[in-house]
Write the structure tokens for this entry.
Amino acid sequence: MTTRFPKRLGTDETSERGVNIVSTIFNDKFHWIFRRTHQEHDFGIDAFIDLVTDDGRVTGKFIAAQIKTGKS
């Protein structure tokens, strides 16, 4: 009996790398909240980014982000 596992594509790795880079920028540089959209709910929006004031207050405002990586 042969078990068939799903195959991870190179484009998946590239996409993951891009999301991680953007997440790091918003978390480390701006100290905003990066909320990734789960793949099964991804209809063009890859993440929501909640804006936080300099004194740490969550404003209720957010940015919807579509993250593009790779040659395209």
